[in-house]
Each structure stands twice: as structure tokens, then as C-alpha cells.
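Same chain as my last thread, 116 residues:
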Amino acid sequence: MAARTKKAPPPMSEEALSLIASWFRTLAEPSRLKILRSLEEGEKNITEVVAATGLTQANVSRHVQSLVDAGMVGRRREGLTAICFIADPSISDLCDNVCNNLMKRLSDQVEKLGGS
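reply #2:
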């Protein structure tokens, strides 16, 4: 299969590349991915995120703050309750693309090894 040719991306400053790397580091934590996946089902308060992920309340709060700081998750107050939601819908598309690519690669490896 021939490689796709793409238009060259515009040049980026070191600061921009550093910001992008920081954004991806936010996603490099499995607990944060669990939280994002749970929020794809809809808005949840912290207690519901804890139940959906199996993480502790302290971990969820800490990781949600990192996701909020990165602009991936939003949070609003309803009385004393913090409601979390996905603030950047492109994050779900990114996660789906990565998951689908990984599944294809694993499937290809199984096929090469003679599996079914």
C-alpha cells in the first residue's frame, strides 16, 4: 500500500510544540483516560466518576483538575456538587482514532502469527 502524501504542516515555534507535548502528557495517564471515557457517556458529578472508574475520590479530583487545566474537561457547580463534562469534543475523536488504530495493529499482529 502506498503511503499517503500530505501537505506539509506549518512550522511551529518551540513554545507551541512544548504546549502540544504538555497536552499529550495529560493524556498519558491511564486514570485520566478512564475519566474521559466515563464522561463520554454524559455529565457526571465526582461521586459518579468515582463509581464509573473505580478510582478514589482524591485521585478523581486531582486528575479532573489536570484535565480541566488542559481544557479537555469542564466543571460547573450545582449547589455543592461539581459536575464534570467533556469540554473539548475533539478529545473523544482523538481517543477513538488511537483505539481503532491500536486494535487494527493488534489484529494485524495476531493474523501474522497465525491466529484467528
